[in-house]
Amino acid sequence: MDLRISTTPMPLASALAARRMAQPQGATPEAGFSSALKGALGAVSQAQNQADELQKQVQLENPKVSIEETMVAIQKAQVGFQATLHVRNRLVQAYTDIMNMQV
């Protein structure tokens, strides 16, 4: 039986190196999961703040703000919050599953 170890780099490592070479100098590196999560949380927070502001304007009877626009903003904020809540629950479940694994 002849076992030969390949000296060529792994395909994933060579693909990553090619990607780094293709990136222009001074470009920011790709966003990871944490930065994507922070961005999503920021977007949900902004949607909630916008819905709150529109709701206040409707309560103050501002003629420039319609109730329909306010209700749509509230629903968008609610959907974003529910999605964020589901992601959080899945992350907690994944963490719990990993912690309960036998090593």
UniProtKB/TrEMBL annotation:
Example GO BP: bacterial-type flagellum-dependent cell motility
GO molecular function, one term: structural molecule activity
Domain of life the protein comes from: Bacteria
Localisation per UniProt entry: Bacterial flagellum basal body
Cellular component, GO, one term: bacterial-type flagellum basal body
UniProt cross-references to NCBIfam families, sorted A to Z: fliE
Similarity comment text for this entry: Belongs to the FliE family.
Name the record gives this protein: Flagellar hook-basal body complex protein FliE
Species this chain originates from: Comamonas flocculans
Gene: fliE
